[in-house]
Design goal:
2 domains, 6 strands, H-NOX domain, single chain, two-stranded antiparallel ribbon
């Protein structure tokens, strides 16, 4: 059976963790759209996950990857509409929050290659599982390969698409910005591969 014919799968457990800065960015998105998100998210999250949102989510804290996915799904359910679009918007907002002020001046044409190359090293500061590898494929194109993920979810892949799109837009690339996932662990591939052009 081909990768495309396979329905996306999800593997969540008790070991994979991500930095709470991702959740903080997602909550900032809900605040911008809804104001106080607590009431709107009620009924969309189980009690343990809701408790995470009520606790102090400091920038150095890590939460289970599983909880991030549950929170993302809860936000999408509360927002309504196409959940995949919501996940993408959450990723875009995460880039806006985490890269704010970094590109007030127009960066050099080499900046996207430098930025995504650095993500190979920064990846482990955002999560404790998997590896990121960036390959330059042209003057205005590149490929990100995420592999060795012990846990994975198509929700995270959709938010990744949004993050990479917004990052390229914030770098004031000439465009058009295009980001596509050409391979995905959630569909049985060995790695998630994102092809970028700008």
């Amino acid at each position: 059976m081909s990768e495309r014919a396979t329905a996306p799968q999800e593997k969540l457990g008790e070991k994979a963790k991500v930095t709470s800065t991702i959740v903080r960015a997602y909550l900032a998105w809900t605040k911008d759209r809804w104001g106080d998100a607590t009431e709107r998210l009620e009924g969309h999250l189980d009690a343990p996950t809701a408790a995470i949102l009520k606790s102090t989510v400091g920038p150095s804290r890590r939460i289970l990857f599983r909880d991030l996915i549950t929170i993302s799904k809860g936000i999408a359910a509360a927002e309504g509409g196409d959940p995949e679009q919501v996940y993408r918007e959450l990723g875009r907002h995460s880039a806006r929050v985490n890269m704010a002020g970094a590109y007030e001046e127009t960066p050099s044409p080499e900046e996207p290659h430098r930025f995504f190359g650095q993500m190979d090293h920064l990846h482990k500061t955002f999560q404790n599982f998997g590896q990121s590898h960036y390959t330059r494929t042209g003057d205005r194109s590149g490929r990100i390969q995420l592999e060795g993920y012990s846990e994975f979810s198509p929700v995270y892949c959709r938010s990744g698409l949004g993050y990479y799109e917004q990052a390229l837009e914030m770098m004031k690339t000439p465009g058009p910005v295009k980001v596509a996932e050409s391979s995905c662990q959630c569909r049985g591939a060995e790695a998630c591969v994102f092809d970028l052009s700008w």
